[in-house]
């Protein structure tokens, strides 16, 4: 009986230590305001949930060690679901710097968006070389009521970490997302343009009525 009591006491102490909020760090994605203001190339656009690698979609902040492994620890966490935070932050930042109305799915407005935007991240990792890399592709497609080309573009963003630890990783990732928002707002990057053939006629909504230049 006494041994059982001691064991229960020790386990309770261990669990209390594990749940101590002061030992758990939660880190935000919060890109700094670059001060840039760009032309509106997107109009209204629905951003699909950003596709992230499994290690970047987990709740723990991950980094690469010199042996090439991707590691994390349970008490260094993102403050929000990484996919949700990445998607909402990117949509908001594109809107802020360009005047476009970019909203994460599901689209909440009655009128359909002019375009749809999809981002597929292939790498989002703080490397052992002291650099944070955000790599992948984004895709812009026209709706049935806008003309121009659908686009596929590549991004390859590198940000120096400047320090060690999850705080530095969070700052670098935030900076990288800000740079990605800038690139998407400008429709920049290497890639292809594919004729969409989506110029349908609607008596309430016409391609010429959105005030946007067709994507070239």
From TrEMBL:
Chain residue ranges for the region called Disordered: 188-216
One Pfam family, short name: ABC_trans_aux
Polar residues compositional bias, start-end: 193-203
InterPro entries in alphabetical order: ABC_trans_aux
Start and end residues of each ABC-type transport auxiliary lipoprotein component domain: 27-185
Descriptive protein name: Membrane integrity-associated transporter subunit PqiC
